Amino acid sequence: MSEVVAKLTKIVPPILVILLLIAVWWIVVVKNDSAIFPTPLQVVTGALELAQDGTLWEHIEASLLRVGTGFGLAFLVAVPLGLWMGWVGGAFRTLNPIFQMLRPISPIAWIPIAILWFGVGDLSPIFLIFISSVFPMMVQTTSGVHTIDRRYLRAAANFGVSHWVLFRRVVIPAVLPEIIVGMRIGIGVAWLVVVAAEMIALRSGLGYLIMDSRNAGNRYDLVIASMIIIGMIGLLLDGTTRLLERMKTVKWRYVR
Amino acid sequence: MSDSKIVVDGVAKSFVSTNGALPVIDGVSFNVDDGEFVAIVGPSGCGKSTLVNIIAGFERQDQGVVKIDGVKHIGPSPKGIVISQYGSVFPWLTVQQNLMFGLNGGGHRDRAALADHYAAMVGLKGFEAAYPHELSGGMLKRVELARALVVKPEILYMDEPFSALDALMSLRMRIELQRLLGEERHTVLLITHDVEEAVYMADRIIVLSPRPTTIQATFPVSLPRPRKLSSPEAQGLRVAILKELGL
Fold it and tell me: Which of A21, A214, B7, B101 could make an S-S bridge to B67, C-beta 3.0–4.6 Å?
């Protein structure tokens, strides 16, 4: 019984805040008699309309596919490179400055170059997602290697294990929690960027849906519906990545 | 003295700091025979840990020689396993995986069986699949001990192995270690600030001076085992060692 109460006290306050926000929104729109800004009901109707004719799912699928591809490529590049830079001092000293310089450049700033190199098809947003998520994952992996507790490396040296065992049994598992943090940051920016990238000259994706809804007769109900869907999918992506933290081999990092 | 397991001859070491060189070890020489249990006691900060790190091959001395089995020692090896105060049980591996870490050769099943045998020996039966964060401090120490013993090291270097445990657990582990050493012969070099621990376990006790450290005194301990710390001989020895330490 008390468990149910504990759960309720966790769930009820955030729901109340959301309900309050919707109420305020509704009242303000009705009081102002706005012609363009939709009420919550209009947004829900608009979203249902999109869901029913299937276009919503197509847009979601297109965005997720771009994020999946760009993020996947970034992961494949970032983790080995990060491990290498973390382990080999020379690699770190040689490559870190250039990566640190590239990292603060907003992915949005790469849009003109993306269009120049890859045109206006699927490759441009994938490239932008790659650029946006590769650096956080790499930096996190590198710092993960740098912060491996020395006593574990000493123990490995003491037992005289091969480089392969050292890497597989000590370095990789020690860095894994940091890699997961990098993945969470990476997937977060990737999702931010895909929407921005799709606003430019693409004919699918949630970013396109927003721009298209506005251009095709000021359908602000669909604009806001898309925004809410984007937020919910972002939350879902983060939640999915967080599931990795439950793996038994990384639990040590999160206890206490 | 060619049959000595460990020969430490004129070892000296300084650390470089902003104020110049800080001498830590100022010429230490001693031998440890095969199968002997030698305890080194000294005031905290006297360079005990540095000394054991040099002997185990993790640090390099500035002067002097360390020989293991008559061979000049370079770098760590599974021949001598270090067990330190902080512990180095891998938190991402289960108890069994930790014990199997240093094993190579033989099939997976043989290694697992050997690991389980040692887990049982230190009283970890039933915890083979547990992760370290699920264990208490005393059990973690047992994992570390078993992980060292399973590779059958000729030498155990113990750097204040039980000082992070509470007093009762520390006593318990002391008795446990004594029992394990009765089952399998090892040469042991124990670093401790606990004089009673040294008197209880060692064949010989070396007392170090404050930094830069030298050997101040050596006490052979010929009391029969299991020892009673309350016996007059043990108490006499304890008082004599404490006196050397200025207490």
Answer: B7
**Contacts of residue A175, Cβ cutoff 8 Å, sequence gap at least 6:** A83, A86, A141, A144, A145, A148
Tokens 């999946």 sit on residue? A68
Interface mutation target, options B90, B96, B159, chain A, most CBs of A under 10 Å: B90
Per-position pLDDT tens, chain B of length 247? 457 899 999 999 999 888 888 899 999 999 999 999 999 999 888 889 999 999 999 999 999 999 999 898 788 999 999 998 888 999 999 999 999 999 987 788 899 999 999 999 888 999 999 999 999 988 999 999 999 999 999 999 999 999 888 888 888 889 989 988 888 889 999 999 899 999 999 999 999 999 889 999 999 999 988 888 889 999 999 999 999 998 8
| Token representation of residue B62 | 């500035």
Q: Which helix (H) or strand (E) holds B171?
A: helix B167-183
**Which tokens go with A181?**
């943090």
The single residue listed with the structure tokens 């890859």 is A118
**Residue ranges matching CATH 3.40.50.300 in chain B:** 4-79+154-244
Average pLDDT, integer, range A126-139: 95
- Contact between B178 and B29 under an 8 Å Cβ cutoff? The reply is no
DSSP, collapsed to helix, strand or coil, labels residue B247 as coil
Q: Would you state the pLDDT for residue B1?
A: 46
Q: Is A255 in CB contact (< 8 Å) with chain B?
A: yes
In CATH terms, B4-79+154-244 corresponds, of 3.40.50.300, 3.30.559.10, 3.40.50.11720, 3.90.1150.10, to 3.40.50.300
User: Tell me, what DSSP letter sits at residue A171?
Assistant: I
Peptide bond before B226: cis, by omega within 30 degrees of 0? yes
B21, with CB counted inside 10 A (0-12, 13-18, 19+), is: exposed
Residue contact A158–B93, C-beta within 8 A: no
Cβ neighbours of B131 (radius 10 Å):
21
Q: Do A161 and B82 touch (CB under 8 A)?
A: no
- From the candidate CATH numbers 3.40.50.970, 1.10.1790.10, 3.40.50.1100, 1.10.3720.10, the one assigned to the domain spanning A38-253: 1.10.3720.10
Mutate to test the interface with B, among A158, A164, A170 (most CBs of B within 10 A): A158
User: Is B104 an interface residue toward A (CB < 8 Å)?
Assistant: yes
**Do B56 and A157 lie within an 8 Å CB cutoff?**
no
Nearest residue, CB atoms, B92 vs list A154, A155, A173: A173
Mean pLDDT of A216-236: 91
Cα–Cα distance for residue pair A72/B56, rounded to 1 Å: 44
Q: Strand B155-159 relative to strand B80-84: parallel, antiparallel, unpaired?
A: parallel
Burial class (CB in 10 A: 0-12, 13-18, 19+), B17: exposed
Chain A partners within 8 Å of B102 (Cβ): 159-161
